[in-house]
Design brief:
There is one protein chain. This protein has helices spanning 8-22, 24-30, 51-60, 62-73, 91-96, 150-159, 180-194, 205-217, 221-230, 247-262, 283-289, 302-316, 322-331, 336-353, 359-369, 372-376, 379-390, 394-398, 404-421, 425-431, 437-453, 455-470, and strands at 34-40, 43-48, 78-83, 170-174, 200-204, 234-238, 266-271, 293-297. By secondary structure, it is α/β, with parallel strands linked by helices. The strands form 2 sheets. The protein has a 5-stranded parallel β-sheet, sandwiched between helices. Strands 1-2-3 form a 3-stranded mixed β-sheet. It holds the Pfam family Bac_DnaA.
Length: 471
């Protein structure tokens, strides 16, 4: 029977009981160095004595533990680790003794316990509330984590107070529809759940600009600055790139940033570009965006896309087989929003026609709505075209050969895979001899720069793009 999600201690105890039964002696040995801190919104926070214990538990026990939690709650479980030599209540001791709830582990007061006295509010202070424009479905529990977004996800949890080193500011960058806004909403939900009195402001850069203009027009700059500086505990600004060219707004945001940063109030911003690539943005702002952590989100790899499809189907109550989930993940590579949109479109068409969402149905619908070549294009197609253009063997692109001509052709092929197929850097790396994603990233950026500055490189790319479009 599914346990209510508002009973995290009971969920964790059931999962621990299941995990210990697999190997009691080994469990007691290692979980004597592990402590449960929290289970909120699908994020399990564990405290360990050292890195050695962390690695052993993560590699040998964590899959069984998180699978059981997922079975009991339906959550997509993520784990936040904290290393601390001094543990108050190691799990192994708690399992062996009577189950007493440690004082640090109480998530919410029970109905039998007297509620803590509320802190008195200043007479003129506005009662904090959750921002109105947050999507209730955008939580950490519903965010699917993979190599393409792992750093941004972990940093977002830390920014929300979920454990780990907190970076201020946190700058999340990535293309459209990859999950930046989802993480921003998740931070706000998590902060508000843990600190109901927190004053959270979530705005787009456009909204910040409009608020600033309105304040100037109506002579309310003191009110504007009080809201964004004095009366703000967490500032979340989406699409900061839209401040480009707005000098007066940038000036105001600069001083807002400084005021909040001095008070150690958390600042999180998102952008579709890295700070150094933001155009018409003041250098002093760009510099401050890099003070904390810049975490990028890439196009998700195949395995993550499959997990995203399954997760979205579960949230929307759509019956989906594994072969359809895999097919959708293979066909829609560009971004998460398009992938989820395709699934919703199939479900809507299925409900209208009475046909099940099976593989033949999915193929027919996607074939009818997608350009034919876009469906068929693959990394192998691009590699083959590049080899033919540069008179190379297909094995040359995946080999360790670093000859200048081979390396250039390999870089061009990686660039075309990124531009035309929207593959993630790790995916491209695996297709080119298991190269590291940073190598691919460097190659793509190098060709991008050469395309703008070198006519010969531009000519090669135009010829290849024409060939790929004609095939």
């Amino acid at each position: 029977m599914t346990i209510p999600k508002h009973e995290p201690r009971e969920v964790f105890d059931r999962a621990i009981e299941h995990t210990r039964a697999l190997s009691p002696a080994t469990f007691d040995q290692w979980f004597g160095g592990v402590q449960f801190d929290d289970l909120t919104d699908g994020v399990l926070t564990l405290r360990v004595q050292n890195e050695f214990v962390l690695e052993w538990v993560r590699d040998n026990f964590l899959p069984a533990l998180t699978d059981k939690i997922r079975e009991l709650t339906g959550w997509s479980v993520q784990v936040a680790w904290t290393v601390d030599q001094n543990l108050d209540a190691p799990i192994a001791q708690r399992v062996e003794l009577t189950p007493v709830r440690p004082r640090a582990l109480v998530v919410r007061p029970t109905s039998a316990a007297p509620a803590p006295a509320p802190r008195p509010e200043p007479a003129l202070r506005r009662v904090p509330s959750m921002p109105d424009d947050l999507n209730p479905k955008h939580t950490f529990a519903s965010f699917v984590v993979g190599p393409s977004n792992q750093l941004a996800h972990a940093a977002a949890i830390a920014a929300a107070g979920g454990g780990g080193r907190r970076y201020n500011p946190l700058f999340i960058c990535g293309g459209t529809g990859l999950g930046k806004t989802h993480l921003m909403h998740a931070i706000a939900h998590r902060v508000f759940e843990g600190r109901p009195d927190a004053r959270i402001i979530y705005v787009s850069a456009e909204k910040f600009t409009n608020d600033f203009i309105t304040a100037i027009q109506h002579h309310r700059m003191d009110e504007f600055r009080t809201r964004y500086r004095s009366s703000c505990d967490v500032l979340l600004v989406d699409d900061i790139q839209f401040l480009a060219g707005r000098e007066q707004t940038q000036e105001e945001f600069f001083h807002t940033f400084n005021a909040l940063h001095t008070l150690d109030r958390q600042i999180v911003v998102t952008s579709d570009k890295y700070p150094q690539n933001l155009e018409r943005m003041e250098e002093r702002l760009v510099s401050r965006f890099s003070w904390g952590l810049v975490a990028d989100i890439q196009v998700p790899e195949l395995e993550t896309r499959v997990a995203i499809v399954r997760n979205k189907a579960a949230l929307e109550g759509i019956a989906l087989t594994d072969d359809v989930a895999l097919y959708l993940a293979q066909m829609v590579r560009s971004n998460v929003r398009e992938l989820e949109g395709t699934l919703i479109r199939l479900a809507a068409k299925s409900s209208l026609t009475g046909r099940p969402v099976d593989l033949p149905f999915a193929r027919a619908e996607i074939t009818a709505t997608s350009p034919p070549r876009a469906q068929m294009m693959s990394v192998e197609d691009i590699q083959r075209a590049v080899c033919h253009h540069f008179h190379l063997r297909s094995i040359d692109l995946t080999s360790k050969d670093r000859h200048k001509s081979v390396a250039f052709a390999r870089h061009v092929a990686m660039y075309l895979c990124k531009q035309r197929l929207k593959c993630s850097f790790p995916e491209i790396g695996r297709a080119f001899g298991n190269r590291d994603h940073t190598t691919v990233m460097s190659a793509v950026r190098k060709i991008e720069a050469q395309r703008d500055s070198d006519p010969q490189v531009r000519a090669h790319l135009e010829a290849l793009e024409k060939k790929l479009a004609d095939e």
